[in-house]
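== Item description ==
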Amino acid sequence: MKIVIAPDSFKDSLSAAEVADVIQAGLEEVFPEAELVKCPMADGGEGTLDAILASVDGERCNSLVTGPLGDIVDASWAWLPQSRTAIIEMAEASGLQLVPVAQRNACLSSSRGTGELILEALDMGARCIVLTLGGSATNDAGTGMLEALGVRFRDSDQSPLPPGGQALARLERIDVSNMDPRLVEVDFEVMVDVDNPLCGPTGASHTYGPQKGATQTELAALDAALAHFADCCQALFGKDERNYPGSGAAGGLGFAARTFLQARFRPGIEMVADLVQLARHIEDADLVITGEGCCDAQSLRGKTPFGVARIARQYHVPVFVLAGTLGEGYADLYSHGIDAAFSIASGPMTLDEACQQAPVLLQALARDIGRVFRLTIELHK
């Protein structure tokens, strides 16, 4: 018996690695002799770095960089020496979790720290840099990142623009003459789990600005500022990436990665699956168990259960989802390779209670599902 355990994190409760450990513990109560293969997963958002390092031979590095509001933060990133690949989770340097709620300011926050991590990777001799775009505190279209890499942004007086997306409304000139020359020797790949464009009602500002502290008035101004930045980039490079799916990711950092770094975009779950060699583990498995904090219709847009199920379907391996909650539309996953989905909630409870009790509830659910699966096997003997 071989069971592959490939869950995402349960947000505000358990990391992907912790979820895998708990599921393993529950299954071991039923299948003590089974081969249980843990592959913690992620789709490009927070926790992607930890999920990758839990499954591949890499080094965790730490660097002091500029946080979203200019303070110094200690950011982790991963170095894979064999392939000379750096994994940079932008939320580590420019993430929303780094800024207290009362201090969040989408108009002024900067992605500079993410650019400083890229410089660290270049100093290590990186030939491939993977950027994961999720959980950002910024709405500066990646200009802070680009400034760290040597790009200069000037107003009509040729003065440097201050940090943040709001200042882009005054942008008159983009100077790339001092952009780090090593960048052209590096392949950039971007992990995304959203398909928002840079501007408009579904763009970076209107969709994600409110959670970053922007008011309704500021949203319109930020959207216009980012559109002006895209106009300036189009005039400079002769191309317009503002409507490319995912350009609005991480407050528009996706746009900067496409325009200035020629980054290739891939669904985050696909890239993580490749890095941890998920297909190789699944091909001879008897069962795959995946999961996430909330499984609903949004899971079909490239979230972990959907991506895991696509791989398992190729090898005709059944897939169960264990989730913190099952939201509206979760059953749509049944036509995409998911065979059954379960919630850990054992009765009426608040979200806080579910998060606090998640380890116990999840282990019990894994045990019970294991018992049902064992019975199914015995009935078919």
The first helix runs from residue 16 to 28. The chain has a mean pLDDT of 93.
